[in-house]
Amino acid sequence: MESNPAISKRRRVISLTVAALVLLIAAVVGWIGIRGLIAKQELQAINPLVTKIEASVGSGDLGAARTAARQLEAHARLAAGLTDDPLWRAAEVVPLAGANLAAVRQLAAATEAVSSRVVTPLIAVSASVDLEKFKPVGGRLDLAPLVQAAPAVLRAQAALSDVDRSVSAIRTGDTLGVVTDAVTRVRNAINRVSPTITALANSARVLPGMLGADGPRNILLLTQNPAELRATGGLVGSLTLIHTDGGAFSIVAQASTTDFPPLASPVMPLPAATEGLYGSVVGRYVQDVGATPYFPVTAKLAAMMWTGKFGGTIDGVVAIDPVTIQYILKATGPVKVAGGRQLYAGNVVRILLSDSYRDYSAPRAQDAFFASTASAVFSKVASGSADATRLVRALGQAGAERRVLIWSSHPSEQAVFAATTLGGGLPASSPQVAGIGVYFNDATGGKMDYYLKSTVSVATGVCRADRIPTSRVTVSLTNGAPADAGTSLPAYVTGSGMFGVPPGTVRTRVAVYGPKDGLLIATSSGKALYPTRAATDTGRPVSLFTVDLKPGASRTIVVDLLDVAQKAPHAQLTVTPSLGGTVSQNVALACDSTVK
Known about the structure:
Layout: H1 5-44, H2 46-59, H3 62-82, H4 86-91, H5 97-126, H6 144-168, H7 177-210, E1 217-225, E2 235-245, E3 248-256, H8 272-278, H9 281-284, H10 295-310, E4 316-320, H11 322-332, E5 335-336, E6 342-343, H12 348-359, H13 363-383, H14 388-400, E7 405-408, H15 411-418, E8 434-442, E9 452-462, E10 469-479, H16 485-488, H17 491-494, E11 506-513, E12 519-525, E13 528-529, E14 533-537, E15 540-549, E16 554-562, E17 571-575, E18 581-588
Parallel strand pairs: 1-4, 8-17, 9-18
Antiparallel strand pairs: 1-2, 2-3, 4-7, 5-6, 8-11, 9-10, 10-16, 11-15, 12-13, 12-16, 14-15
């Protein structure tokens, strides 16, 4: 039988069409494969450059950093271009392969954005804000370099935020392990550098103003004493007024807590929850302004007490503690204080918080010694003799540990501080994270917290049928004072039986704050419920309890919380900074031990 010529022709056309389509698909696949391979090589070339930039910036070799940054930007731009043509995007709809192609394209774009909009601009301005040049000289800081660099720093922060959002949006549910790992590495890298970029941007926003770039400022410095704990870090030991103007700064007045007699009523109306939990003493005694964990209230109270006593205006309040001074002395070297005593990083905490109470029996003499130390350290920093890099690291470490807290009376500046740990706000929560706070207030009436050791942890998990996450906060306290503390330590340290506390015993009031809109389930010790006062503060559940410890004694208290507003079991702890404290975040929760 002869074949039909028309049918044969159609078959040849179909075959040729299919063959052409196969060749086209092969060409497209080859094109994408070649571009993908080149893009991979370009992205791989970036890793050593990032390491080189970090090392060069750290060593101060800005020339090498700029060269590496230009190479980084070239590789990143090429990788982004290779993965952003129409064929690549069209292939992203292909099952299985498409998700990987989309993720690679988004990663390449993110890398290009970071290199061109963050790294290169920051290195360009780094020369004008060189740390060794950007430090006080003769009590004055040249603000011009920081003011000039501010726009570039703020743009870099905004760019990094954009990149963070885009990388967070990359879907990795269907991607290959190698692609998923790459996305994770980029996310981790962004999380690692974001705090530094944010700190730079915040400094650019607030530092010039606080140092008087826009006119004179008065800053009240509170030195807190963690040997007698308060929620914000310690009892106020001394107050120092610092005047700033055009970058110049100097101490203009110092005061002892004995200069502030107790007031008959709070210096300003207290929030109902604050007075209910901590009493009116918060607003009547300058020593107790830090009993509330909310530093903006602490700062306003201290500012009003100062102006009520001495007049004038207060533009900002800064709180530090002796551990902060210890960190600063690592950068400045030793200082001489009243009596010719030399303080350095290795002895300052012991001398200020222990030895001084043996050497100075009168409270006013103790306060004068504290003031002398603050003045000596301030003068050393103002002279410009400190190692600038170490000084920045010291302040950064103290800030991260919440040993430095800042409040500004200027709303734009306060908005910046409020968004950081420096603002000393109550723990913030989100649908993903339960913000939990643990705060200590001494009730001994002495300085026994020098010997107090604390361990605080939070464990999270889903233990209920309704899938609402549970957080378990464990607070362990130990009195590490010598067995004969009641007789061997000065009466000023033990409290000498004040408030009915036997000498040598440490009495601590602990406030555990749950996440906003959460619920307090139970407070217990061992297998028994522990006496507590249940309350709320700004929508947060609070468990307030007291622990008495004789020398050598320990006690563990457990607080169970229900994280009603959270979608996942994850918590972030904020704890009063102390002298002997450890904090553990997100320990695995044993559901069989929780109260449901």
